[in-house]
Design a protein that fits this description.
4 strands, Translation Initiation Factor IF3, alpha+beta, flat
């Protein structure tokens, strides 16, 4: 079983916060198939959450100890029915850190730098084409409440009824 320091455990808990459970241990318990799934998930991700559908905390503690003992992983946290385990995988870090050289992103073109003389020749507004076609007729304006019998509160009759009551 891997031992983790308190600082490492705190960092791993923070990393695992947004993760969703990738393996669920059901009513049949920790079967070889479930252990295999946990092992493959640890190989792929290093840090995983496991959901256990048992209501008894001591059973979940025993499952966590058995998982960590058989798969040589470290317990990070036991929070309710969620178990968080971690196992270092050097292959993941080796694949990610092949080249430490900074690379330029693919598909990014660098635009040529214009000289100050060429910038002053034309402003960007002067290059925009003038509008074409016929201009639209102005839209009709709404009348305000003084000219019409109906305003925002309803008809005059409904207002009178409200006042009468």
């Amino acid at each position: 079983m891997n031992n983790v320091t308190a600082e490492q455990r705190r960092a791993l808990r923070a990393k695992a916060h947004h993760l969703r459970p990738v393996v669920a241990v059901g009513m049949h318990g920790l079967t070889p198939a479930v252990l295999h799934e946990i092992d493959s998930a640890l190989k792929a991700h290093e840090l995983i959450k496991i959901r256990v559908f048992s209501d008894v905390r001591s059973e979940r503690d025993a499952l966590l100890a058995r998982i960590c003992g058989e798969l040589e992983c470290a317990p990070v946290q036991h929070l309710g029915k969620l178990l968080i385990v971690w196992r270092h995988n050097p292959d993941l870090h080796r694949a990610a850190g092949d080249d430490n050289k900074p690379r330029r992103a693919r598909g990014v073109r660098r635009l040529p730098v214009k000289s100050p003389e060429s910038r002053d020749e034309k402003s960007s507004r002067s290059r925009i084409a003038p509008p074409t076609g016929t201009p639209r007729a102005p839209s009709r304006r709404r009348r305000n409440g003084t000219d019409s019998a109906v305003d925002h509160r309803g008809s005059d009759q409904s207002r009178r009824r409200r006042r009468a009551h």
